[in-house]
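Shipment paperwork, digital attachment
Item: protein structure file
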Amino acid sequence: MTSARPDPIEGPLVVRTQTLELDAATALLDLLPAERPVSWLHHGEGLVGWGVAAEVRTRGADRFEAAQQWWTQTCERAVVRDQVQQPGSGLLCFGSFGFAEDSGDSVLVVPEVLIGRRGDQAWVTTVGRDAIVPPTLRPADPATAPADVVFTDGSRDGEAWMLVVAEAVSRIAAGDLEKVVLARDLVATASAPVDVRWPLSRLAADYPTCWTFHVDGLFGATPEMLVRRERGLVTSRVLAGTIRRTGDDTRDLALAATLARSSKDLEEHEYAVRSVADALDQHCSSMSVPEAPFVLHLPNVMHLATDVNGVVHDAEQVSSLQLAASLHPSAAVGGTPTPTALALITELEGMDRGRYAGPVGWMDADGDGEWGIALRSAEVSGAKVRLFAGCGIVADSDPEAELAESQAKFLPVRDSLT
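Attachment content:
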């Protein structure tokens, strides 16, 4: 299956970015109305927007290429007046992409209004087809909490999923592959349509070190930066190897030390780092890959983490979205070797991931941007929310331990709905 090429853009976009006086105590999410919201927040900074000035949907094996073609055409025809000249100002799109070529629609969307904050500077961008009228910014109507939320098993219950993990371990032991990432889902049903701004606010407050995102119904708080490209520099944060926190600081420090020495987790992490470094190497004139990971502490879990950095030599030809496409799917969300792992996921997982574990983020007209991996995430549709969690399976994986890890990974979104 391949994507239909985007239709030509109808008329140029007119874009205006200007500085904004914004009180430091004002949370960006407090300004976000319910009309087609988008968000990308980290430590209270980042971007929120709403409305749709332009949009494209692609699918199939060339979903990234079709989206990039549309964006290039859109930028070439746009009239942009940017008084701020900061990463995240000017003409921007937000995107979310299917994990697999048969995972349904991927989307790029240009909001009509976007508000950004970086350090002590804030700005507002307005986008339209004609003359731009600056919006009147005021606190939006507050979101209401989801009502009467009930959780049920998704494609498989825990017992059935553990059997799938055991089968994957046997395939690895037989030498078919080295690692495979298996995911499961959980369904939350409320008594009324869910206002996505409610879980977004909860996630941003509870997980400030993650990137809180929402694009076209997919939301979450991802700890993993697939790729950031900014003014010639590229960064990717690789996470693989996880242990659940207990809430006892002393005990958690001991668990962190155990994680850092775990041969199973270090093996899983090495596969993930290698896949990212190999993909970025062709685009970088120099790269820095640390020899050993560090332990990233989150409220619910701890991860082995490595930050891969490089200097891009082909920025004029390759955008941040194209870098993200070259990295997807990394071993952190697929496995090793990738083709064999993806085939096993199709055979064993028993569900459509949709846009879970695909690239999600934003990009500007120069191709700079930030693309995370859509982890700790869920898709909302009316009163129903589908949550996702995945675990890296290697030769030493234990099905019960992997089930417990998946339950820990459900917690951020699950707690945000209650």
